[in-house]
């Protein structure tokens, strides 16, 4: 978000003050934004993939150890409790999946509204740039076009964070599905 704000501010100054040339700074901050987003996604997804791969094996081992402990060390009813543990784990997985799916649907609903607003605002800026080009100063039209490109960074940021939340929710849903 700070890079978006700095890019917008430099864009305003660059296009509305003819003696100040900051176009290269705007392109630098846009490029920096793309690199930072790419690196953050790579690190995050790598970390989450490693966590997701190892979590299943740890869960499976702990479940088997719990079942063996129950059946071997609890006299008389240990076998029944071990089988009841399977039923309890299956119902917990069912509840966890239902809550996870509702969380994903809720997240998609929350993200959809701002994205639609930003896209509509972006289209309005494009229309304003198209209308001002033939009748107004070229600086205003260029300014609106640059602002529209900067809003692409905002959409990318919002979609990226939503994607990260979806990955986390999906890993929470998949964790524990080892019976």
Global mean pLDDT: 78
User: Which shape, going by the Cα principal axes?
Assistant: elongated
End-to-end separation? 43 Å
Number of separate domains: 1
Largest sheet: none
Primary descriptors:
single chain; 179 residues; mainly alpha; 4 helices; 0% strand; elongated
Helix and strand arrangement:
Elements: H1 2-16, H2 23-73, H3 78-135, H4 138-174
Helix pairs in contact: 1-2, 1-4, 2-3, 2-4, 3-4
Q: Could you please describe the fold and organization of this structure?
A:
The protein has helices at residues 2-16, 23-73, 78-135, 138-174. By secondary structure, it is mainly alpha-helical. The chain has one domain. The protein is elongated and about 90 Å long. The relative contact order is 0.14.
Short description:
This protein has helices spanning 2-16, 23-73, 78-135, 138-174.
């Amino acid at each position: 978000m700070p890079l978006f704000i700095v890019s917008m501010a430099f864009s305003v100054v660059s296009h509305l003050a003819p003696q100040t040339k900051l176009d290269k700074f705007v392109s630098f901050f846009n490029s920096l934004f793309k690199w930072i987003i790419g690196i953050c996604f790579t690190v995050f997804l790598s970390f989450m993939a490693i966590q997701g791969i190892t979590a299943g094996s740890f869960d499976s081992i702990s479940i088997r150890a719990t079942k063996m402990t129950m059946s071997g060390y609890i006299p008389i009813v240990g076998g029944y409790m071990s089988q009841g543990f399977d039923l309890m784990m299956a119902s917990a997985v069912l509840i966890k999946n239902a809550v996870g799916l509702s969380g994903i649907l809720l997240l998609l609903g929350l993200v959809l509204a701002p994205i639609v607003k930003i896209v509509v605002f972006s289209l309005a800026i494009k229309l304003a740039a198209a209308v001002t080009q033939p009748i107004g100063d070229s600086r205003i039209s260029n300014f609106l076009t640059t602002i529209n490109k900067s809003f692409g960074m905002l959409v990318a940021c919002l979609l990226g964070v939503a994607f990260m939340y979806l990955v986390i929710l999906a890993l929470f849903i998949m964790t524990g599905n080892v019976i």
